[in-house]
Amino acid sequence: MGRPMTEAGKLRRLKSLELDDAVDLRREINDVLLAYGLSVDETMQAAIDDISKLAVLELRAASNENGWKNYARGWVYESKADKKGIRRNVLYNKKYGQLTHLLENGHEKILWGKKPVSTGNRVPGKKHIEPVAQMIEKELPKEIEKALSQQ
User: Given a cut of 90, is residue 52 above it in pLDDT?
Assistant: First the structure.
């Protein structure tokens, strides 16, 4: 048997135990917060994917309404990650991407013949993308809030 521990020795031992417990507690809290963060990230991405699918359907319906069937079929969304790992959903027209601006905003009328001639008139644009963008801005925060409250 060793000799009895002095008061100073007891105090040093108690401080080292407290320090070990504090380190373990810090690790435990860190693990819980990391798991929660990953869960929130997955929940938010699922909500963003749901809104993206809805937006594609809305764009297809709005484009089809105007009689642009082939153009309407081209709407898709893609989830891309940047170098930092942040995922973003991009909505675009895969088949006729070059037409989106012209159809949304209008364009100049051209008479085609041997030599294209400007008529000075314009074809009016038909807003089909802007209303969907506004719907996304309005609905996405609601969808994320709803998904996180159910978590």
Answer: yes
